[in-house]
Amino acid sequence: MSPFHGILSGIVCLIAVLAVPLSAAWVNVTANLANMQSECGNLCLLSAVPGKDKVIAGIAQKGLWQTTDGGATWTQLGTGAGSAVITNRPGCIVYEPASADIFWEAGIYNGGGVYKTTDGGVTFHQLGAISHNDNVTVDFTDPLRKTLLAAGHEQMNKLYKSIDGGQTWTDIGSHLPDSTSFSRPLIIDAATFLDGCSGYNGKYGIFRSIDGGATFTSVGGTPGTQGPSADPLVLANGTILWEQIYNRGMMRSTDHGVSWAQITGSGTLTTSRPVLLPNGSVAALGVNQILVSTNAAVAANATWTQVCDALPALTSGVNYAGVIYEPVRGAFYTWNWDCGTVVRSNAIMRFDYTIGTLSPVKKAALAPASPAMFRNAGSQVFIPGVGERGARATIYNLRGGVIRTEHLTSQGQRVRLASSGISVVRIESGTNGR
């Protein structure tokens, strides 16, 4: 088989920081979670733990589970002595920037609404007495993390605020304009809040407060048609990307939510939280595909390119719910659920996809016969020693023509890419001749 089998033509549109394993395919990694007893919503969340080869899954009634081996096995969190038991339908995990072992969880139905762990999920404690919460957001400008907001699930004018780290909560939903739809809040700082509202009842839009939630004004969206229905992505420079309800596209703010622009229209994206990739581009769930934009943060009209094989077909009426990217392993994950009473047998899928920056030399841990594509004309890639006599690196152009072959040392060496265009590097065995 050609090393170029399955290369998507759209990949060439990506910026020069992608390394794509061409032999990857979607793999079912539901493993021991498959057929677990649950309820409607069953496998309702995936979350990549920052800085670790770890992914957390949320299961309705069964709490949080983690994998550290790419989904081969999943182990339950919250089993430490004295831990609160999470039985809600997890919908949101927010990580402490200084330490991913600290995170907050929010969920709907069944038990408490907001929980926190400070030991990586060994133990959890419930924050206050609120319940049925779509998300939680934390003021990370305050070192003490005192200010939190939490949404009320499918309830108009329902927004909870805490100023003591979640010990107590006050409903400030009445401070929103009358009859606003279901909330999805975001804290900018202790005084500045955003609330994206949408749903099957009430007023749509994005509402902003600059007085700690005492008052809100409309700053974006269109009543009845445009309003966020997923958690936003906030970039390091403060730019906010927020997807709209019913697959109606993406909006962007570059001024902390004062003003908004529609950058993607209806039908391209499937409403979910966008994902920041290691190279600065943004991934989002499309219609049965993963899309990447290199200009969503800046362009008036963002462009999106499919980067993986199409997602495997699901049973009629079941849709993929979201996408995450785990950069340590280098893989996209996506998940799906239904209203049955067990976790679906193919609820979690993984696609191995390495993303890195070649500047000027990238270490490329490539396995024999596993090609990777680079678009950095004239750059060098460091190939570690593969411990196999006669191993070589062959550099191809995108048409499959051999540019040159270099024999590898046991210590590894630098390999120069093609002087122009896209290079495909394939590590080949000295014994099998592939």
What does this structure look like?
The chain has 434 residues and is an all-beta fold. It has 2 domains: 19-352, YVTN repeat-like/Quinoprotein amine dehydrogenase (Methylamine Dehydrogenase, Chain H, 7 Propeller); 361-428. Helix content is 0%, strand content 36%. It has no helices and 36 strands. The chain has strands spanning 19-21, 27-28, 43-48, 55-59, 63-67, 75-76, 89-96, 99-108, 114-117, 125-126, 133-138, 148-152, 159-162, 170-171, 185-187, 193-197, 205-209, 217-220, 233-234, 240-243, 250-253, 261-264, 275-276, 282-285, 290-293, 305-306, 320-326, 331-336, 348-352, 361-363, 372-374, 380-383, 392-397, 402-407, 413-416, 423-428. It has a 5-stranded antiparallel sheet with strand order 1-31-36-33-34, with no helix packed on it. A hairpin with a 4-residue loop joins strand 27 and strand 28. It is globular, with a radius of gyration of 23 Å.
Q: Which terms summarize this structure?
A:
globular, four-stranded antiparallel β-sheet, five-stranded antiparallel β-sheet, single chain, 434 residues, mainly beta, Methylamine Dehydrogenase, Chain H, 36% strand
